[in-house]
Design goal:
The structure is a homodimer.
Chain A lengths: L25 E2 L2 H9 L3 E8 L2 E12 L2 E5 L3 H7 L4 E15 L7 E15 L3 H15 L12 H5 L3 E5 L2 E7 L17 E9 L3 E2 L22 H13 L3
Antiparallel strand pairs in A: 1-8, 2-3, 2-5, 3-4, 4-7, 5-6, 5-9, 6-7, 6-8
Organism (chains A, B): Paracraurococcus ruber
InterPro entries (chains A, B): Pyridox_Oxase-rel, Split_barrel_FMN-bd
Protein name (chains A, B): Flavin-nucleotide-binding protein
């Protein structure tokens, strides 16, 4: 249970999601946390089987306070635990390398979000089929309706997992080089190297029939564009700006 | 204990690290696993406190079969558990978005590695000081010796955590669009969008005294270059090619 009453619009803060290390970087408001989540396609999910932690990368998406992903190694475990299992879903964007004047102040600028909840398999067939369409459209605007329909066998072979975000925290560092005051005068090279994840030009499948047009929904997928911008734009196109 | 005798040069395969889903993508040889680890600066670490899983992003580095990182939220827990704690350290590189002709075959090309071990705090002062120098040099060739020396207080405020890789697995998908044979003739747009993480041009700290030269060790840090290439090169420069 939360041990702090959160301001409206924020996630509750408890011992579980309180940012301890460099706590001044912590954010609990939905707007900050969602902006970090919605700019990502991949997350890492931690879960426990027989006391052993596992950390699995997977594509995920957000709908209000719910997160969804599909077909992870946790599926096997989830099938045997109808009550669901505790997970921590984390997203990290690396924004820069920070080279300071001493080892201690070397750092990176980043945006990360940790979300805590109870993962459950989406069992209802209609809910699952809808979720999979949403997954496609969330990443690739208006694409689901253009695809060959999923077969019963394909739907059966896919597990969709969902969780409500019970608690969450964001953490942001964006200040570049920050050294001790007395170190700035030292003749030591210090700099910030920005980092970005970008897409390249589309490589169309060589087996497409002639005349298949480039989809309008992928107009934002241009050579050299930041993936976090593309993902945030696609999320807003589907759901509006929160 | 491993339930399979691994080929020489490979990590043992057990129930813990066996790749289950799409197992044909699995790799257990050190060369494949290390190549994935060494191309990364950030990892995600899963650990458990009182049954609750946590997933924390952090910078890490590899030395033979050992992984090191510093100052994570797990530190608090580690202090109270001298025997160490079970962790799973995962690295993921996203290499492309794969847009297929049906939802089921949408995918991403990626390289990921999961490493299992027991995390312990590096207590010995000399070992810790050396580890922190190595950490700097592993990311930024020859940089540690150019920095203002760490103070006793800074060293005390830093926790270095290490683990031996007991088991590991890599997973690689790199085939781009792969559809059902009967779907290729459909008039549906299908393509691969390459994804890469790159650095931008150095943004030198404006408070540097005049005349501080750009370090030779950062010659590889050029505008637009892939971070995974830079990291792999820095690792090889420090340790040789495994």
């Amino acid at each position: 249970m939360p041990d702090t009453v959160p301001p409206s619009g924020s996630y509750p803060v408890s011992e579980r999601n309180k940012v301890r290390r460099l706590h001044e970087r912590g954010r609990y408001d939905r707007e900050s946390v969602h902006a970090i989540l919605d700019a990502a396609m991949l997350c890492h999910i931690a879960y426990v089987i027989d006391g052993q932690p596992y950390c699995t990368p997977t594509a995920f998406w957000r709908e209000d306070d719910h997160l969804y992903w599909h077909g992870s190694s946790a599926s096997r475990m989830l099938r045997s635990q109808k009550g669901g299992v505790a997970v921590c879903l984390t997203v990290t964007h690396l924004d820069s390398l920070v080279l300071a004047r001493c080892g201690f102040n070397h750092s990176v600028d980043y945006r990360s979000a940790m979300c805590f909840g109870t993962a459950r398999i989406v069992e209802d067939a209609a809910e699952k089929a809808r979720a999979l369409d949403v997954m496609i459209n969330r990443f690739y605007p208006d694409r689901a309706a253009t695809l060959r329909q999923s077969t019963t066998q394909e739907l059966k072979a896919t597990t969709v997992i969902g969780m409500r975000i019970e608690e969450a925290s964001g953490k942001i560092r964006s200040k570049g080089v920050a050294d001790e005051e007395e170190d700035y005068a030292l003749p030591i090279y210090a700099a910030r190297f920005p980092v970005r994840q970008v897409i390249g030009a589309a490589e169309p499948c060589p087996r497409m029939p002639a005349g298949v047009p480039y989809p309008e929904g992928l107009a934002g997928f241009t050579d050299g564009r930041r993936l976090d911008e593309i993902m945030l734009e696609a999320q807003h196109r589907l759901y509006g700006e929160d």
